[in-house]
């Protein structure tokens, strides 16, 4: 469930008056998602997504996210830009939260992607990277490599409450990843999505209709984006079984739209382990700090630990 902030109908109707989108017809909270409050809003002018940004999205990052979406949309990429109000403003305040009215995109996110769907999704990332080569803005990756050791230390011995021995296991992972991580100038850097999981790709059949949820977007190694995507798409839910055909289809699709250098290909196994560590740590922190009866569903950190060990045991990018 991700509707943390309730927006009264009267408040929403008044808010919509700022835009050229017609009158409010209906508004329903969207259960999916974990970070923000999202509503599907129908007006006499069409359908829209209303997002209220909750504590994890910093208001001063919104101009970067909105500029990124506008840049991609201008280049014909399947992303949902914010709808400007009559004065051209995209970022607003509603119920004491930063808020945007966003273009609605059709499609559903797949839970068990087929190779054809993985190929299309990989191609969509390649197209997005191509369109971002001339995007001039930077955003530090707040969930990037420098944040992993501090987050591990913040979780501390409590990790053993998730599973006995987990603190020592995670310490070894942090050491392994950080000791081998490429220098900042070793690989091409660019604006990346950084969270392109299946639930952030909308599809109709084998066609990608939307790339959404850019709220971790940042500047980092471009190949790290592909590594994140591989960890999220090419495994079963437990993270124990690697679906090599899905991973290969993803890479094939990507390379059909954007070239991967030899150095980037060689770095992928380590970048993937870094991605596993990043999502293991953020999930572990949330697991330890979200009450079991909270409205939001906690995501399993062990599923990312399992993926980490799978990448450590064999190189699926060979
Ligand atoms: N532009 C959009 N068009 C259609 N549906 C959307 C759009 N943006 C979000 N959604 C729906 O809302 C859900 C949650 O959005 P998301 O951005 O992933 O939330 P969160 O940031 O809280 O994780 C998505 O799974 C999707 O169903
Ligand atoms: N993809 C991350 C969590 C972020 O959730 P999202 O709904 O904003 O994509 C994970 O799976 O740990």
TrEMBL record:
EC number(s) given by UniProt: 2.7.1.39
Pfam families reported in the protein's UniProt record: APH
Pathway: Amino-acid biosynthesis; L-threonine biosynthesis; L-threonine from L-aspartate: step 4/5
Keyword terms: Amino-acid biosynthesis, ATP-binding, Kinase, Nucleotide-binding, Threonine biosynthesis, Transferase
Occurrences of domain Aminoglycoside phosphotransferase (ranges): 27-256
Keyword Disulfide bond on entry: no
Family affiliation: Belongs to the pseudomonas-type ThrB family.
Protein name listed in UniProt: Homoserine kinase
Organism of origin: Stakelama flava
């Amino acid at each position: 469930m991700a509707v943390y902030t309730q927006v009264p109908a009267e408040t929403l109707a008044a808010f919509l008056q700022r835009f050229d989108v017609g009158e409010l017809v209906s508004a329903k909270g969207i259960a999916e998602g974990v970070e923000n409050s999202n509503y599907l809003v129908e007006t006499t002018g069409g359908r829209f997504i209303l997002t209220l940004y909750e504590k994890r999205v910093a208001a001063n990052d919104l101009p970067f996210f909105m500029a990124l979406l506008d840049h991609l949309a201008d280049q014909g990429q399947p992303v949902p830009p914010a709808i400007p109000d009559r004065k051209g403003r995209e970022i607003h305040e509603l119920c004491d939260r930063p808020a945007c009215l966003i273009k609605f995109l059709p499609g559903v996110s797949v839970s068990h992607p087929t190779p054809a769907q993985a190929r299309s999704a990989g191609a969509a990332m390649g197209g997005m990277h191509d369109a971002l080569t001339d995007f001039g803005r930077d955003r530090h990756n707040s969930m990037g490599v420098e944040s992993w050791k501090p987050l591990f230390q913040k979780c501390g011995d409590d990790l053993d409450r998730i599973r006995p021995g987990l603190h020592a296991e995670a310490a070894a992972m942090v050491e392994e990843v950080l000791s081998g991580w490429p220098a900042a100038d070793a690989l091409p850097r660019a604006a990346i999505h950084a969270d392109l999981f299946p639930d952030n790709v909308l599809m109709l059949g084998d066609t990608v209709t939307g790339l959404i949820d850019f709220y971790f977007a940042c500047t980092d190694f471009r190949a790290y984006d592909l590594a994140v995507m591989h960890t999220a798409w090419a495994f079963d839910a437990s993270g124990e079984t690697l679906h090599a055909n899905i991973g290969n289809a993803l890479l094939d699709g990507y390379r059909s739209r954007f070239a991967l250098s030899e150095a980037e290909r060689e770095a992928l196994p380590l970048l993937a382990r870094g991605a596993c560590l990043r999502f293991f740590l953020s999930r572990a922190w949330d697991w330890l700090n979200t009450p079991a009866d909270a409205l939001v569903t906690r995501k399993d950190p062990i599923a990312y630990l399992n993926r980490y060990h799978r990448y450590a045991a064999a190189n699926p990018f060979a």
